[in-house]
Write a sequence for this structure.
């Protein structure tokens, strides 16, 4: 809402400068976004009188003019304009002035035009930042010749002379205060804020005799959606531009002046917050107004020239045959005011907010009117607004108002008061404001206090309960005067197990040199193809956004993997030599028969390093170290089989991917990304990724840690080198060793894998260092030998022989 | 014999002074002090001495032996320390060469900031509660006194999944769920991702993070709300932080307040950083609306409470002077490694 300070001054004098006005009214609840002065880009532009004009000797289109700017000597200005005559008053930009050129502020200095000195410039409306809407009598391509509605004092600042110096304040009005979307509403707020009177007069008109019921009739068919409909009739209408003061105020309020009748409706809306509609009765068939729901299949061409299909829940203003306006939203094209209109009907009505809102939304057109109606206006506001429109018609002398008017009023006149309990208000706010002071604040806001109840003025649709009164008191008392206190009582807070677990996972990942990332939860369904998900993958069953910003953010991710890949790709494209990234984030998995999806938390990890220092075992190491740190139980590492729940397996290199399973639960998948995945993401080096199912992992981890005594007896180390089938997984060998080694086998460390000379083609040699230790005494060679023998025998069952 | 011993001592010391390494020292030691050494040879002749002379010579011989031994030791030490010095000298490094360390990862700035906020609240007795991001219209709006078609819904452009399910625009649903489950006193914060259909630019993102707080108990006042936020913001921004509380409207609180932070740059005078306002808008808050309490089965005649919501991105960007929100979601390693 843009407020003209000149307009406001009609109603209230706050006795302060604009800065203080803005600060104080913001603190009482009407937030000022910014303020400014109209035409502040103009400087040193004055009213000049054309004393003489002669043709430029060296130009066939330029003129040399002498302009009286109220100084001792006239100034000479060369102009290309063809519409300047002796005796005209013109906006004259003097040497060192600023005007607008193509929307930008430019400086004007003296110079020569084809050899003739020119000490400034004569201005068009455009150069003043104005349009023909502001001064309809001006011509499009020429100097603005000041009309009789301007001050023609030679040398006067042009902004003052043409009324282009109003101060504008832009307010952010919250949705509960549609009454403040008006000059009078803000005048009331200002008066209460500064504790000064607001001079709001009741509009009055004289009118001419006549019975409106003989001219037209109104019928409300849906009283719920239209509790009140008022209208009046103006005849012998003279359509023309409205006076300067009206155009000026409309402009300052951000509304373009059109003609006197349209301007009056806009003026009243801005002043009273009540949307008005003016239409030509000629186009209302049967001179009968029906306020009814639209019929199936009906449509209307609105004022903006667009044909709109209506549906049955929409309320329309209709004549005997067709809709002429969408109630509270926009009028129809054919019933609007034309240049040849001779009789105008003013409509001032109240429509249901929710209905207007739904209709406007469905038709895709929000108007100044619908924005006001949808917040809920009081039916009482229709009356002063209509009276004001009549008053303005008479003030402008642009028609004759028929004295009688129609008022179909089905609104509820009962006004409930709200219990006014000063003690409760103080205990709620934490203040000690005397009851009398509270009453004074409420009275300033036009509340009536009676029998322990406070009655809000009609325009305050937002006052419903005690807390609302508390706010009214608090905002005039001053929020910043309320003390700052500490909540009484002691409360103990602690992290949940999940919160602690997440913090541990994060700390472990950071400790391993991986950077934390934050990615969007929504992705493109195309990303599933990028990570090579099979067509029938359950992960393609997504939570879909009905109204996404774009395809890239249109579905909730069912796997964190594409988000990780995206980060790898972006860093690669930025030519970052390495990327170590992890995220703790949710996946969103639809659940059959449930309203809301499941949102399990996942750890996603992605790594590449163009220095070549990472491989499959790096990502494996990170995952395993994390599991260890979290206290995971014993687990198996194996290639994913076709039954794996990790649908992402296809994204990985088939030979370099593994799944970790513990107690029959799959916990993690990791590996090198498939070359096709890399290609899809434009990643030009090998990259690795992992996904860990955190809730599943947490469920298997032990929180408690217990100390195990340090060994008392020394350990013995034995190395063992084996030759076995190349295909035999290391995990099987290690498991076999551990099983056969029993309790005294403390540690198994792989230290060499060899293929090549002396080893058959389909074989490999693997070497382990085994640490043996007894907790009952120093291990003897015999004991160690016996264990080693058991191990060797067990390995033979897998075809692994000692390497000689 | 006395003469001989003294001569031996002199000779030994003389030789020791020329010895250049440990090996020659050892040769000298063996030659003079060894089983076949010169002193031993002398001592073997002790039998020839008179009983009076024997202890005198014996004593002398022992002293000479001890002296020589000592001389050998100190010569050894001298050579060792010289060798050590040479070695140390040879091992000199260019201490200005870069260090080697295992690399540590960096917490994302949003999470680093969140951790700090959470710490403040844990200290004040607030539990941290989480809830679903895909939420029902009921928990996101209706239970918050924003029925369908409420105009305030416009300020939160919403992504819908279907008519009744949406991506939460605020974490308030978590508060409603908590109030339904828990009896007062309640002190919680609910941080998390929220979604609004704003196109991405330097100050907007369709996904961002909010930290909302809720306190419900008997006798909770608006003064408590002010005191709590004052404490939080002073912890986050420093003791000299100046706040301004300003009336506002949220359907779920009454009275409602927006809290502005006095511009650090101009101290309230107005400058380009605060768009001439002197203050920077920081968060929304208010006393929980009685209708919201009632809807959760809490009697507003007995209990009162306050709630607030603060944008994590806004605090984070302010703290680190980040001027473009997009950087937070781009995850460029060069950006992340600065924190």
């Amino acid at each position: 809402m843009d407020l003209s300070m000149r307009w406001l001054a009609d109603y209230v004098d706050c006795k302060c400068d604009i800065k203080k006005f803005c600060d104080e009214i913001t603190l009482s609840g009407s937030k000022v976004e910014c303020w400014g002065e109209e035409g502040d880009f103009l400087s040193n532009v004055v009213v000049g009188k054309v004393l003489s004009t002669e043709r430029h000797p060296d130009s066939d289109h330029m003129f040399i003019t002498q302009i009286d700017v109220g100084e001792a000597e006239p100034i000479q200005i060369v102009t290309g304009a063809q519409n300047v005559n002796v005796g005209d008053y013109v906006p004259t930009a003097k040497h060192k002035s600023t005007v607008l050129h193509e929307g930008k502020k430019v400086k004007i200095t003296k110079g020569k035009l084809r050899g003739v000195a020119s000490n400034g410039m004569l201005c068009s409306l455009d150069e003043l930042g104005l349009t023909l809407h502001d001064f309809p009598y001006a011509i499009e391509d020429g100097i603005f010749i000041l009309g009789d509605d301007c001050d023609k004092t030679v040398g006067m600042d042009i902004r003052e002379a043409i009324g282009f110096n109003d101060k504008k304040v832009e307010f952010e009005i919250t949705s509960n205060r549609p009454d403040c979307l008006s000059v009078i509403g803000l005048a009331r707020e200002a008066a209460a804020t500064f504790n000064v009177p607001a001079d709001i007069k009741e509009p009055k008109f004289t009118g001419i005799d006549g019975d409106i019921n003989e001219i037209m009739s109104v019928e409300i068919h849906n009283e719920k959606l239209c509790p009140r409909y008022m209208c009046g009739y103006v005849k012998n209408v003279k359509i023309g531009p409205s006076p300067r003061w009206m155009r000026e105020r409309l402009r300052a309020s951000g509304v373009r002046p059109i003609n006197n009748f349209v301007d009056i409706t806009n003026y009243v809306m801005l002043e009273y917050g009540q949307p008005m509609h003016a239409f030509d009765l000629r186009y209302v068939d049967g001179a009968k107004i029906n306020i009814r729901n639209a019929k199936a299949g009906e449509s209307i061409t609105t004022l903006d020239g667009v044909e709109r299909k209506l549906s049955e829940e929409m309320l329309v203003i209709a004549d005997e045959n067709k809709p002429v306006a969408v109630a509270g939203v926009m009028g129809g094209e054919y019933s609007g005011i034309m240049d040849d209109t001779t009789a105008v009907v003013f409509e001032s009505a109240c429509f249901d907010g929710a209905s207007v809102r739904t209709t406007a939304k469905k038709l895709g057109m929000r108007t100044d009117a619908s924005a006001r109606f949808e917040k809920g206006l009081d039916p009482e506001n229709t009356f002063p607004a209509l009276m004001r429109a009549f008053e303005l018609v008479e003030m402008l002398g642009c028609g004759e108002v028929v004295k009688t008017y129609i008022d179909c009023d089905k609104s509820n006149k009962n006004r409930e008061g709200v219990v006014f309990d000063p003690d409760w208000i103080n205990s709620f706010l934490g203040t000690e404001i005397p009851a009398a002071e509270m009453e004074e604040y409420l009275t300033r806001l036009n509340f009536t206090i009676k029998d322990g109840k406070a009655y809000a003025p009609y325009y305050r649709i937002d006052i419903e309960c005690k807390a609302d009164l508390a706010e009214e008191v608090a905002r005039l008392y001053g929020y910043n005067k309320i003390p700052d206190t500490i909540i009484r009582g002691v409360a103990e807070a602690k992290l949940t197990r999940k919160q602690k677990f997440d913090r541990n996972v994060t700390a472990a990942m950071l400790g391993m040199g991986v950077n934390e990332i934050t990615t969007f939860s929504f992705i493109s369904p195309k990303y599933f193809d990028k990570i090579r998900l099979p067509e029938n993958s359950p992960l393609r069953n997504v939570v879909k956004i009905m109204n996404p910003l774009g395809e890239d953010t249109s579905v909730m991710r069912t796997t964190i993997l594409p988000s990780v890949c995206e980060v790898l790709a972006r860093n690669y494209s930025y030519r970052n030599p390495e990327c170590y990234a992890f995220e703790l984030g949710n996946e969103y998995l639809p659940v059959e028969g449930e309203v809301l999806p499941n949102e399990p938390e996942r750890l996603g990890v992605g790594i590449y390093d163009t220095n070549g220092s990472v491989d499959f075992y790096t990502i494996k190491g990170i995952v395993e170290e994390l599991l260890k740190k979290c206290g995971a139980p014993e687990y198996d590492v194996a290639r994913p089989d076709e039954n794996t729940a990790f649908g992402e397996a296809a994204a990985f290199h088939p030979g370099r991917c593994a799944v970790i399973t513990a107690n029959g639960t799959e916990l993690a998948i990791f590996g090198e990304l498939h070359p096709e995945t890399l290609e899809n993401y434009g990643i030009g080096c090998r990259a690795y990724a992992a996904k860990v199912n955190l809730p599943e992992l947490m469920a298997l981890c032990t929180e408690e840690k217990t100390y195990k005594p340090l060994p008392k007896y020394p350990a013995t180390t034995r190395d063992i080198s084996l030759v076995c089938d190349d295909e035999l997984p290391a995990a099987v060998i290690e498991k076999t060793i551990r099983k056969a080694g029993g309790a005294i086998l403390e540690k198994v460390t792989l230290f060499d894998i060899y293929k090549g000379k002396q080893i058959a083609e389909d074989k490999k040699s693997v070497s382990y260092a085994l640490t043996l230790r007894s907790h009952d005494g120093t291990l003897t060679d015999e004991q160690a030998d016996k264990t080693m023998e058991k191990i060797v025998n067990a390995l033979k069952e897998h075809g692994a022989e000692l390497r000689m | 014999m006395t003469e001989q011993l003294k001569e031996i001592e002199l000779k030994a010391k003389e030789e020791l002074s020329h010895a250049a390494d440990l090996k020659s020292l050892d040769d000298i030691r063996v030659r003079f002090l060894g089983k076949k050494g010169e002193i031993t040879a002398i001592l073997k002749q002790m039998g020839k001495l008179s009983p009076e002379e024997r202890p005198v010579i014996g004593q002398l011989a022992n002293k000479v032996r001890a002296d020589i031994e000592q001389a050998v030791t100190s010569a050894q030490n001298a050579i060792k320390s010289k060798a050590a010095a040479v070695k140390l000298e040879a091992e000199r490094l260019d201490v200005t060469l870069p260090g080697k360390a295992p690399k540590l990862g960096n917490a994302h700035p949003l999470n680093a900031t969140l951790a700090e906020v959470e710490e403040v609240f844990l200290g004040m007795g607030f539990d941290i509660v989480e809830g679903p991001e895909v939420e029902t219209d009921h928990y996101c709006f209706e239970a918050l006194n924003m029925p369908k078609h409420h105009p305030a819904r416009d300020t939160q452009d919403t992504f819908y999944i279907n008519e009744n399910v949406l991506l939460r625009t605020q974490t308030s649903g978590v508060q409603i769920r908590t109030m339904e489950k828990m009896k007062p006193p309640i002190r919680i914060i609910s941080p998390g991702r929220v979604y609004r259909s704003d196109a991405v630019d330097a100050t907007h993102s369709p996904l961002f993070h909010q930290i909302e707080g809720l306190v419900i108990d008997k006798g909770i006042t608006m003064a408590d709300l002010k005191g709590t936020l004052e404490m939080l913001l002073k912890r986050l921004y420093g003791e000299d932080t100046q706040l301004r509380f300003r009336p506002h409207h949220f359907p779920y609180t009454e009275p409602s307040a927006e809290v502005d932070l006095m511009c650090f740059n101009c101290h309230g005078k107005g400058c380009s950083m605060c768009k001439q306002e002197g203050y920077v808008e920081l968060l929304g808050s208010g006393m929980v609306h009685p209708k919201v309490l009632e809807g959760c089965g809490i009697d507003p005649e007995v209990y009162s409470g306050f709630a607030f919501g603060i944008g994590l991105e806004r605090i984070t960007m302010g703290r680190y002077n980040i001027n473009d929100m997009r950087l937070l979601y781009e995850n460029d390693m060069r950006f992340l490694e600065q924190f």
Notes: Chain B touches chain A through 86 residues (CB under 8 Å). Chain B has a mean pLDDT of 90. Residues 2-90 of chain B form one domain.
